[in-house]
Design brief:
400 residues; single chain; 48% helix; two-stranded antiparallel ribbon
């Protein structure tokens, strides 16, 4: 397998947890620093990032990143930062990006450039209660990012290509909304949002209309009101019709601002029959449908039994829906949607063979716990062997 040197350690700075932990992306959970302990500059060129850059150069991403990472599968093209060449040559985002390109090409591990992709999760708080949310218990603790990081943010936003407020629900937080309201729109930095589209008020749309937007992603997890209520609302104050109205408003905003507009669904036993309807729904709103098999957030047998235990008839139906959906997304020119469907088909084949049985999953969970009890010196070679095996197996399922 050709070594793939992912750019993320050189370009991405992500605070994906309000406890302040910093990673290079949302698919690799290696903690490279914490904004409660150090400044952005100290973390960016600290031991965590510099060692990760060196490891990426020496080993390549396939050696230590999850085999299901969408970037490794050819997806997440909306994270591509090559459009820096469209920026004004005398602007700070272009100057920073050009320097970063030079440093990446030279294999530098200590950088003068600053993050081009700046993602931060102010809090896990949310107005919904989604079935698969790994943040649910943490959200109850009401942890939020420190004021020091929020004070640093505007300076780094001036030089970055992408500013990515995350959540929880990002529009749920007053400091985030205030940051958006105060951002200097003469700058060429663009925004990336992921929202559940339930609280996009007129005031929020007024702020969105003034901002340069790269991507506006909507997380739905359903193609029908019944599935939406079962999987997401669960007693919270939100409704399907409001979401559909907001999708229409976002479609209109896309026509004005020309941003990338993905709409996503995590596939499970409840919405297993909604693959093709979801594709139809997204395309009707001029959005790109992205569907992936849900992950078991706390690795429990109960979750596996309730949401990831499919019948043979469901497996056959899901495969048929994928086959029927692929020509639709190809005709729409939705390359990421096509990649996601092909990866979903492989993931379902792998799941059917290996993880569909709750008993089998329970055995793997016990083995995983035993693995984490081993000394790190033993974990590393075992992890590499398992990773290579997973990569080969997943590619074989993709090729079928």
């Amino acid at each position: 397998m050709t070594k793939f040197v992912c750019r993320h350690p050189w370009s991405h700075f992500e605070v994906n947890n309000p406890n302040g932990d910093v990673t290079m992306c949302c698919n690799n959970n290696a903690v490279l620093g914490n904004v409660n302990d150090n400044s952005v500059a100290e973390i960016w060129n600290g031991d965590g990032f510099s060692k990760m850059r060196r490891r990426m150069l020496d080993e390549g991403a396939h050696e230590f990143c999850p085999h299901t990472c969408p970037v490794l599968q050819g997806g997440k093209k909306y994270e591509n930062l090559d459009w820096y060449d469209e920026l004004s040559r005398d602007g700070e985002p272009y100057e920073n990006a050009a320097l970063n390109e030079e440093e990446y090409a030279a294999g530098e591990t200590i950088l003068e450039s600053t993050p081009r992709w700046l993602r931060f999760t102010y809090s896990y708080a949310c107005n919904l209660d989604c079935y698969h949310c790994y943040q649910r218990e943490d959200a109850k603790m009401r942890i939020k990012l420190p004021d020091g990081f929020m004070d640093e943010l505007p300076d780094y936003a001036r030089k970055s290509q992408i500013i990515y407020p995350f959540g929880g629900e990002p529009f749920f937080f007053k400091p985030v909304v205030e940051f958006l309201a105060n951002h200097n729109t003469n700058l060429e930095s663009r925004f990336f949002f992921v929202t559940n589209a339930t609280i996009l008020t007129d005031a929020i749309f007024d702020r969105l209309k003034r901002l340069p937007i790269s991507t506006m992603a909507v997380s739905l997890d359903a193609a029908t009101a019944d599935s939406f209520d079962t999987l997401r609302v669960r007693g919270r104050n939100a409704d399907w019709e409001t979401v559909m109205q907001n999708l229409g408003r976002l479609r209109d905003l896309k026509q004005e601002k020309n941003f990338i507009f993905p709409v996503s669904m995590t596939l499970n036993r409840v919405n297993a029959g909604e693959i093709e309807p979801f594709v139809d729904l997204a395309l009707a709103y001029d959005a790109e449908p992205l569907i992936m098999l849900v992950s078991n957030p706390y690795q429990t047998i109960d979750f596996q039994r309730q949401f990831l235990n499919f019948s043979d008839a469901q497996f056959d139906d899901m495969q048929a829906q994928i086959d029927a959906s692929l020509p639709k997304v190809r005709a729409a020119g939705s390359s990421d949607a096509e990649t996601a469907l092909i990866s979903l088909r492989a993931a379902l084949r792998e799941h059917r063979e290996l993880d569909n049985s709750p008993l089998g999953y329970g055995s793997k969970t016990i083995a995983r716990k035993a693995f984490h009890m081993l000394p790190e010196t033993l974990q590393i070679p075992i992890r590499k062997t398992v990773q290579k095996r997973r990569n080969r197996r997943f590619e074989s399922f993709r090729d079928e």
